[in-house]
Design brief:
With 186 residues, the chain is mostly helical. The chain has 6 helices and no strands. It has a domain of 123 residues: LemA-like domain (de novo design (two linked rop proteins)), CATH 1.20.1440. The relative contact order is 0.14.
């Protein structure tokens, strides 16, 4: 009579253990999805602001059409890359960031643009959005790291594959971000 009770207790403990691992993995996967959704919100805000900025500077920059075209094409590429996965989207967003930097550098050469309240407001909104994107990237990458680690540790590794949990990609930072800006004061 004691042996069946022990077997039942061991099976119940084992089932509870598997349920605990499964629920933990689901929770972490959902956190990755939530973090990804947050970055998508910020990227959409960025994509929505860019046409307004391009329209605001278009009249002033007659011979700088190449920069505006570059920004517009980079925006379109970034929007299209959203459906191609995290790595493709991160790469396209990095191209867009570079195009925006070029645009802001050109704007610096036009005093009338630097004084335009609409352009200044849009630049400020884009700067704020860029900061939020940076924070969202950090948050997403931290949750992806936590999730991926939980897939690879024992005993989770024994259950993750059979239950369909797969490794997630990081939202890679742009390579230029690692460079230190040069400041020339004279």
């Amino acid at each position: 009579m004691l042996v069946p009770v022990i077997i039942i207790v061991v099976l119940v403990v084992l089932v509870l253990f598997v349920v605990g691992i499964y629920n933990g993995l689901v929770t972490k996967r959902n956190r990755v999805d939530e973090a990804n959704a947050q970055i998508q919100v910020q990227l959409k805000r960025r994509h929505d602001l860019i046409p307004n900025l391009v329209n605001a500077v278009k009249g002033y920059m007659d011979f700088e059409k190449g920069v505006l075209t570059q920004v517009t094409e980079a925006r379109a590429g970034a929007i299209a890359a959203g459906a191609q996965g995290t790595a493709a989207q991160a790469q396209a967003e990095n191209v867009l960031t570079g195009a925006l930097r070029s645009l802001f550098a050109v704007v610096e050469n036009y005093p009338q643009l630097k004084a335009n309240e609409n352009v200044l407001a849009l630049q400020e909104q884009l700067t704020t959005t860029e900061n939020q994107i940076s924070f969202s990237r950090q948050h997403l990458n931290a949750t992806v790291l936590d999730y991926n680690n939980s897939l690879q540790v024992f005993p989770n590794v024994l259950l993750a594959g059979p239950f369909g949990f797969t490794k997630r990609e990081f939202f890679a930072a742009e390579p230029e971000a690692a460079e230190v800006p040069v400041v020339n004061l004279g």
